[in-house]
Amino acid sequence: MSLRKKFTGTGIAIVTPFHDNGMIDWESFKQLINFWIDGKVEYLVALGTTGESATVHGAEKQEVFSFVKKETAGRVPLVAGIGGNDTHEVIKGFREFDLSGYDAILSVSPYYNKPNQEGIFQHYKALNAATPLPIIMYNVPGRTGQSVTAETQLRIARECKNIFATKEASGNFDLVNQLIKNKPDDFMVISGDDPITLQMIAGGAEGLISVVANAYPRDYSDMVRLCLAGKFEEAQKLHSKYLDIIASMFAEGSPSGVKAYLSEMGLCRNNFRLPVWKVSEKHQAKIKELMKTV
User: Fold this and answer.
1) pLDDT of 117-130, one tens digit each?
2) Catalytic residue among 6, 61, 69, 167, which?
3) Mean pLDDT across the chain, nearest whole number?
4) Displacement of CA 279 from its chain's centroid (Å)
5) Could you count the other beta carbons within 10 Å of the beta carbon of residue 226?
6) Active site (annotated) includes residue 261
7) To pair with 242 at 20 to 30 A between CA atoms, which of 19, 215, 232, 264?
8) What is the mean pLDDT of residues 94-112?
9) Which residue of the set 43, 102, 124, 138 is catalytic?
10) Distance separating alpha carbons of residues 31 and 112, to the nearest angstrom
């Protein structure tokens, strides 16, 4: 199967469930994986931001990658989240993690250091030369503090052929339009923003890596498939149905919001690793009311 076919549609940036003591809840993790696959999503992304990757390290990170591979059992393609703000450490992860059974790596643009655009390009050029798998780059300035410009993303797309896609979560439609207009034919633009995915696909994006699909995999992956088929009137109904729910998932931070939904559904505990914390009681009550609408 080609990369384009594997990664057209809906991927989920999956949560990592925890016990009350902070250890990974493997039983809930298994239940969630089957829930997502039964929901007909196209692929799963392990240890992206929603998976609280910042607080899962070393051998435990490998445990997650291996567990997700074992439990999916080849039913859907898999993406491993391996990124950071130290290029050498990211490449070390590429070498040391066993990524057998995975189809790609998601690697966020460097955060906190705030490199200039040439530094960002050189970072991805180094990853491109060292990677064991195709890479999806990830532009999320709301978290990294700095956007990867359309010019830099296009340069990466043209010169770094192991980087086949971008997860674009800037919310900047000028950037997105320039990217889609000028990208190489074999380079994919994937939405990283649930609430604007319909509009991005209408403009030429090829799918979504979603947060909301953790809780509502079937409806949201159906919405994306309808968009990709050009059935925007039908897609709009599902899009509108979930707008308030999506907003509530991010109102007090993510993954705090989506785990609030999953805990109400009985799919995992409402637990996190600091500094991430649960939503307020007031917001949890609002979430319970919103769940009744769907």
Assistant:
1) 999 999 999 999 99
2) 167
3) 97
4) 21
5) 20
6) no
7) 19
8) 97
9) 138
10) 35
